[in-house]
Design brief:
Blueprint (H helix, E strand, L loop, with lengths): L3 H4 L1 H14 L6 H17 L1 H12 L3 H27 L2 E3 L9 E8 L2 E5 L7 H13 L2 E5 L5 H15 L5 E3 L4 H9 L4 E5 L2 H14 L3 E4 L5 E4 L5 H13 L11 E5 L3 H16 L15 H10 L4 E4 L3 E2 L4 E2 L2 E4 L6 H4 L6 E7 L2 H9 L6 E5 L3 H10 L4 E4 L19 E2 L5 H6 L1 E8 L17 H8 L1
Parallel strand pairs: 3-4, 3-6, 4-5, 6-7, 8-9, 8-15, 9-14, 13-14, 15-16
Antiparallel strand pairs: 1-2, 2-18, 7-17, 10-13, 11-12
The structure holds nicotinamide-adenine-dinucleotide.
The site of nicotinamide-adenine-dinucleotide (NAD) has 27 residues, from helix 8 and helix 9.
Length: about 450
Amino acid sequence: MRDPVRLNPIPALVERARTYFRSEVTRPLQFRLERLRALEASMRAHEQQVFGALKADLGKSPHEAYPAEIGLVYADLKHARKHLKQWMKPARQSLPLTFWPGSAWQYSEPLGTALVISPWNYPFQLGTSPLIGAIAAGCSIVHKPSELAPHTSAVVETVLKHAFGDDGYVTVVQGGAETNQQLLAERFDVIFFTGSTRVGQIVMEAAAKHLTPVILELGGKSPCLIDADADLAVTARRIMWAKTYNAGQTCVGPDYALVHREVKDRFIEACRVELASLYGSEPKQSPDYARIITPRHHQRLVALMSGGRAVIGGQHDEASKYLAPTVLVDVDPASPLMREEIFGPILPVLEVKDMDEAIEFVRARPKPLALYAFTSSSQTAERILARTSSGGAMVNDLLLHVASGLPFGGVGQSGMGAYHGKASFDAFSHRKSVLKKPFFMDLKVRYPPYKVSLDLFRKLLG
Ligand code: NAD
């Protein structure tokens, strides 16, 4: 017999995934727990390959790779295994007296076959972590890793095949935009996309054709608001760390800083001191400092730098994809630097007269994925949080909220839906409302011909 997967790979692979889901083997708790365990065991068996691949793709140091790419996934796996039984249980809800006798429930059922698409910047974590929710929820999965991190995408495939085999439960499809568009032409029951806002729009448009629900984990320009009462040394250290983590190629990385004018110069000097302590006088020599993913992204970042004047860094070398940690001043708010997501180790610093001006600056732009407020005043922090909208936020620190177990996701142009912890299970589940009634007490008043007055109906229904 001719093999449909070889003849017409993508539709046949998707159909195989759908058949797997329809077989119902993914439903029992035991199956899901075993698969979560298998994923963890396979990850542990391939850790060294993961480190090697991340070094090859991004020059990522193991000290960045472990917490952000591997440890976070282990933590999510552990949490899912511990709570899955509880999450899967139908949850009883209260029922108004009018509906008695009876009981009200919410059942979580798997949405079906999930398409999970990931980007290149945390290629291992973003290729595995969303799968935890899909496995926990009882879905079958088609996964497309990023073509721009080829070493890591190959290891993701190895890890998943080692864990699950290749029988339609978890199918890895390697390829770029064209492959992705072929996948998006197929009907899925849920699409989980991590990537840029531009491609997020393409994904949502394709999903609309099949009325497929989407979770969009996108990017944006995440601001830092720094008030005059902030501890400048700690603020600068944390911002420089976050701005240079993975060479700034982090969706929740700080994009730009709005600094109270009284402390702007001192903040920049503190950045200089902190950068030297993080990477020495030659960041290029530091084994802890990552590289830009491709020459094309490197060129884009170099071009963006013309939107300001470098007071720290600015050096770059396309051949080694190195771009120095850079701080810019005299920033043109209308330049591409301030219109596009930077996604690199460049921090534009803009001066504001107070935090209200900073708030207005943020409010005038698309809602960011993260917002970072630096102040010693809890009232100021609350005012910033209340008057701005962002996917998530932190006060006096950065990035860590992603790993805290809190639901993580964007709002507006930075995305929709959330995951991590129970939110991952919910992202791939449908909450089915179920009302159960016994046969007894079949009161005739509800049926025609109506014998009671409308007033009595009104009273009964409250
Ligand atoms: P991207 O949108 O270019 O690519 C993401 C995925 O979409 C890849 O698998 C790619 O193959 C595919 N793709 C690219 N072009 C396509 C097209 N025209 N049609 C269909 N599919 C296409 O994103 P990227 O450059 O890989 O990643 C960087 C972006 O991702 C940044 O904007 C960043 O903020 C965002 N991001 C968000 C999160 C989050 O959790 N919210 C995490 C990481 C990255």
